């Protein structure tokens, strides 16, 4: 279901499960395993996640829902999905979602767990679960609220109406909208820019931003000072400062 192609320090992680790239439990399990492998690969500094075919992902596998008979079964399905989304959000390497076609339901929940989102202008993004008489279960209610605010999040969920990629940028749900034919190249270019930085400093920033979700401002500021000290004495920091003084491009090695 997933394939990995590497370009420099960037891994292109592609989902191929036609026709809609539905997020069945088996898909989420394989995604988690792929991420575990990429985490340990020192030659991978940034990941671009995209869907092959017509969609990024049109949602969860609805056929799986028909086998669920008890409330606790459904709750466990939700928790399993939430764990994968949390793994993505807490992943120590940047993950960029390249979204075309549609990111709906579980597909949007997957995209929102990524650190950055590049979207096709005509893509459709939404959480239409209420149309089925259910609610989002992979932390979609919380991440959509964080990105677009309460009023817009409630509107999107209560009406089940998606927004376009262009609108997603306007609402803060995506970083950039481009014509669909430019989508993957744009995401790769962004990934390559990030991959040129020291992976140590990239990871430190990511850790601090994630900690801001659960800790106070002053706790995070103190953590920033600690990490500043740790990063400052790395070989990459010495290389970066020397390169600046010598007016050359730094060559970071992750040490």
CATH topology of the largest domain: 2-enoyl-CoA Hydratase, Chain A, domain 1
Tell me the CATH superfamily of the largest domain: 2-enoyl-CoA Hydratase, Chain A, domain 1
Rg: 19 Å
What is the averaged pLDDT score? Answer: 96
Low-confidence stretches: none
Structure explained in plain terms:
The chain has 255 residues and is an alpha/beta fold. It folds into two domains: 2-195, 2-enoyl-CoA Hydratase, Chain A, domain 1 (Alpha-Beta Complex), CATH 3.90.226.10; 199-245. It has helices at 25-40, 62-65, 71-89, 106-113, 140-148, 150-159, 165-170, 183-195, 199-211, 217-232, 235-245; strands spanning 2-7, 10-15, 46-51, 95-99, 102-104, 116-120, 124-126, 163-164, 176-178. Helix 1 (25-40) packs parallel to helix 3 (71-89) and helix 5 packs across helix 6 (150-159). It is an enzyme of class 4 (lyase). One of its GO terms (biological process) is fatty acid beta-oxidation. Pfam families: ECH_1. Belongs to the enoyl-CoA hydratase/isomerase family.
Question: Which descriptors would you attach to this protein?
Answer:
globular; single chain; 49% helix; 255 residues; 6-stranded mixed sheet; 3-stranded mixed sheet; 2-enoyl-CoA Hydratase, Chain A, domain 1; 2 domains; 9 strands; alpha/beta
């Amino acid at each position: 279901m997933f394939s990995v192609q590497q370009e420099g320090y960037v891994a292109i992680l592609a989902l191929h499960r036609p026709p809609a790239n539905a997020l069945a439990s088996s898909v989420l399990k394989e995604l988690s395993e792929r991420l575990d492998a990429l985490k340990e690969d020192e030659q991978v500094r940034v990941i671009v996640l995209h869907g092959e075919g017509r969609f990024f992902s049109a949602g969860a596998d609805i056929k799986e829902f028909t086998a669920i008979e008890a409330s606790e079964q459904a709750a466990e399905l939700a928790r399993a999905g939430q764990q994968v989304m949390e793994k993505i959000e807490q992943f120590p390497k940047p993950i960029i979602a390249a979204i075309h076609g549609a990111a709906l339901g579980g597909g949007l929940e997957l995209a929102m767990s990524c650190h950055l989102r590049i979207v096709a202008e005509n893509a459709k993004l939404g959480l239409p679960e209420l149309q089925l008489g259910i609610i989002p279960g992979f932390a979609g209610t919380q991440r959509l609220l964080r990105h677009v605010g309460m009023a817009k999040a409630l509107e999107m969920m209560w009406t089940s109406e998606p927004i376009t990629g262009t609108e997603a940028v306007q609402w803060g749900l995506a970083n950039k909208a481009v014509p669909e034919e430019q989508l993957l190249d744009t995401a790769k270019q962004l990934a390559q820019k990030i991959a040129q930085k020291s992976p140590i400093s990239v990871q430190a920033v990511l850790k601090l931003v994630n900690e801001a979700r659960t800790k106070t401002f002053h706790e995070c500021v103190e953590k920033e000072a600690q990490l500043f000290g740790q990063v400052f004495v790395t070989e990459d920091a010495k290389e970066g400062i020397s390169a600046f003084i010598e007016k050359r491009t730094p060559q970071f090695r992750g040490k």
